[in-house]
Amino acid sequence: MSTENSSDQLFNNSVKILTDLISFKTISGEDNSSLINYCDEILKKLGATSFKTYDDEKKRVNLFATLKAKNSNNKKPIILSGHTDVVPVSKGWSSDPFTATIREDKLYGRGSCDMKGFIACTLAYAPIYSKSNLDRDIHFSFTFDEETACQGAPILIEELKKREIKDGICVIGEPTNMKIIDAHKGCYEYTTYFKGLAGHSSAPHKGVSAVEYASRYVNKLIELREKLKSRAPKDSIFDPPYSTLSIGGVFGGIAHNVIADKCHVNWETRPVDKDDGVFLNQEIDKYANEVLLPEMKKIFPTASIEKDIIGEIVGFDRQDKSDACELISSLTGDNSRQVVSFGTEAGLFQEIGISTVVCGPGSIEQAHKIDEFIVLDELKKCLALLDGIKNNSISN
């Protein structure tokens, strides 16, 4: 078979696998086991070993599979990492979001670029890895619920630590147009619940309005947001250069003439560094516990304010020397480094000593949108990178 025909077959296989992956409706928070089993079956047929980790309900699954090196040369293993979940779809799609559709040079479907395109490429290339004389392990790491504050990856990371897998090079295949991303802010998501005392609106002094106390809580967050701006590092590489804070929603109340007994606030912060996250949480918790809650309990002793951590995604820090970035640069010839505003699982791998880079096919501009797509040529670029990894990982 000619090299050209072989490349065409590899590309066609990646499209076929991507089509299959899109058909699995792996919306965040829902069962992703069918997709994980599909991936596991492909890799096991190639001789890979694997293990799975689960959420408490055993319906959401992480997969970590390994094609072992045939000749050990003490080279750091490569981890090819992607999340299997996708964001929900809204009305307005030109075609079924869970049926891959090719129009001109683009493949449409939910998750096509974020980030099932990368996973498809790794699975399409896996047979070549399995037949190669590898002198380093190739790992495949597929997680659940990255889109909802990285709920799956921390469970996987704990298992990696138990298994002493704390070294290596990790490529997170988020859509970056195959450009190297070596830093991003953290992303901490919270929901704060307020429980007050319902009553008739004509006697507000006899009730405790959860909505009013939630509003004061939001105002305090906005005040703290301004303080975060003043804490921006002088040499910040981010835009904006400071830690941000956003109120995602305030939900409470049932009628105009009823004192609201329940309310909750969804909010998030994207800290430049951990210290900002610590500062913010300490200040808002102090305000809630020392100012708001005592006032509420004067009227209703069982009033409460509870903050739930939805997820705390650690930031991804730029490093002067990065084995992961240097490897990708050597394969692509592109020495540039960029930062992004969105969060990834990169910081979690970096935190346990694994050199990490974010680099994958597709554009973040298409992610989370109606008619999400990936340009087909991006799949070819990703396959070329995986080929470079193979050539860097085989015995001479």
From TrEMBL:
Cofactor(s) the protein requires to work: Zn(2+)
GO BP terms: L-arginine biosynthetic process
Entry keywords, A to Z: Amino-acid biosynthesis, Arginine biosynthesis, Cobalt, Cytoplasm, Hydrolase, Metal-binding, Zinc
GO molecular function: acetylornithine deacetylase activity; metal ion binding
Pfam families, A to Z: M20_dimer (PF07687), Peptidase_M20 (PF01546)
UniProt-listed Enzyme Commission number(s): 3.5.1.16
CDD domains assigned: M20_ArgE
Highest taxon above the source species: Bacteria
Domain spans labelled Peptidase M20 dimerisation: 183-293
InterPro entries: AcOrn-deacetyl, ArgE/DapE_CS, Bact_exopeptidase_dim_dom, Peptidase_M20, Peptidase_M20_dimer, Peptidase_M20A
Family: Belongs to the peptidase M20A family. ArgE subfamily.
NCBIfam families according to UniProt: AcOrn-deacetyl, PRK07522.1
The protein, known as: Acetylornithine deacetylase
Gene: argE
